[in-house]
Amino acid sequence: MLLLLLISAACLDSSSASGAVWSKRNEVASRAAICPSDGLFCVDCLNSVFCNGGTAMEFPCSEGEVCAGDPGFAGCRNYIGEDAGKCDCDSVGNSGFLTDPYDPTKYVICVPPEAQYFAACTDGQIFNDETELCENLPPAPQCTEVGFQTNDPTCKTYYICTSTSLPGIMISCGEGLAFDTTTNTCVDECSLGPASFTCPSTGSGAFPDTADCTTFHVCSNGLVVASSIACPSGELFNSVTMACEPTSATVIATCPAINPCWSSTYCEACGSTTCDFIIPPTNDPTASTLTDTTVSTLVGDSTTTTTSTTTSRTTTDIAALDRLSCQCGQVTRADSSAHSLYNHPWTVALLNAADDKHFCSATIVNTLYVLTAASCVQGKSTSSFVIRANEHELGTKLPRAITRSPNRIQVNGDIALIRMSVPISLTQYDAVKPACLPGPNMDFTGLSATHSGYDHGKNMKNDGRLLAGTSTTRLNFVPSGHAFCREDLGGPVVSTVSGKTYLSGIAIDRTCSTSRQPVAKTSQYYNWIYNNSNTGRFCKQ
């Protein structure tokens, strides 16, 4: 059954069902008007309230949502306007169906080139992207107490229980959010982590740590008697045999995920470093040498600079590491527009935190790091800018822009690594993918190359050829037409070799020259980039 979505007229006056408008700053309306009974109500267009026994708990709507629904069963719902609909259909790329990211009971029907219809499943159903059908919801949990409950293993939905005699009212957290059972709120799904260790209520014996199976705890009748005991190097605690054993697939399979919201799916989407302990990095015996290297590190708002002369480092074989299921340097959804972000998904923007103004571009390396030009971050603190991914045109924040704050900056020569405070998914979005890092012996001289960036607020594509540079750490990019300049600084220069797109260079010039433009030669920084970014998770090479 197809239901057209309409915005409640009452919402347009910003009035509740009782005619009262309420906020934390204006409590003129009586409590009886706000909470005529137990349940969920709209207090105005942008705020809902959960009422229980005369106590009101406010739930502000997220950006792009309005409060609507019958009194007692109201809530914040996605406001679907023309821009949102067009954007959603553009992301499908052809005829098809798309789930509303804020409400799984709603969906969009896309008919190219730009027609779209908004629909909702019948009561008790949600839309399944895979089958493109409305399917019955699992039965709502019988409320055992008034408050919050969840029976969703992904923690994308939860239930508000207003009575023990009624089923719970399902609420969807929205895209990128998950229900945190410790705070009873929806939070960034990547901020959730494993539960802290507690002994089983009557448990005695040894138990693995909930976040790291290289350590274990000893319990006696539900109490911890010995905590955080480390296994020998190269071993994990086997929760079946209750002993430390050499790392193997069998032992790895016994590692627990005690918090149901913290699972292999979470590790895949968010790239949590606590998921990486199971397979240690493999080192290549080949060593390389970096000479006269000055490295600046900015953590928070404090900078330290160290200089080393002739430092030997071990080259790590990235291909041997535990990888996510994605492939680096691969376009997963090609677009007919050469300038589309889908064709350059490793490109991100750097924006001032104060005014959201774009000042540089950068490249996705892995789930935690982006790479840019050193001059982009010189003189900047980690609190002064943000990283923006998945935004096809700056300023619109559509279709689903992802913003991350930096918490560490490291500079080496012409380039800089920026660590994000929260990981970014490399498997969830077609416009968020990493470029492949070139090995130290890869030479791109004479090859065709493409530069991408966010100059003038729109992702731009510049083709050209790479020539030898003025030093061993630089190449020259000779554009065939439009040159990179201004906010293109820090953006990726990529070359395709054997079907894979490699990050051959980083744009380090703002001059807009159409003759020769210097780029940082990424292969010369391979060891430094890897050694300082391997706390993030990489896609397969």
Automatic annotation (TrEMBL):
Signal peptide: 1-17
GO cellular component, one term: extracellular region
Domain Chitin-binding type-2 as annotated: residue spans: 140-186, 196-257
UniProt keyword ATP-binding present: no
UniProt KW Protease keyword: yes
Alphabetized UniProt keyword annotations: Disulfide bond, Hydrolase, Protease, Secreted, Serine protease, Signal, Zymogen
Protein's name according to its UniProt entry: chymotrypsin
GO molecular function, one term: chitin binding
Top-rank EC class of the record's enzyme: hydrolase
Subcellular location: Secreted, Extracellular space
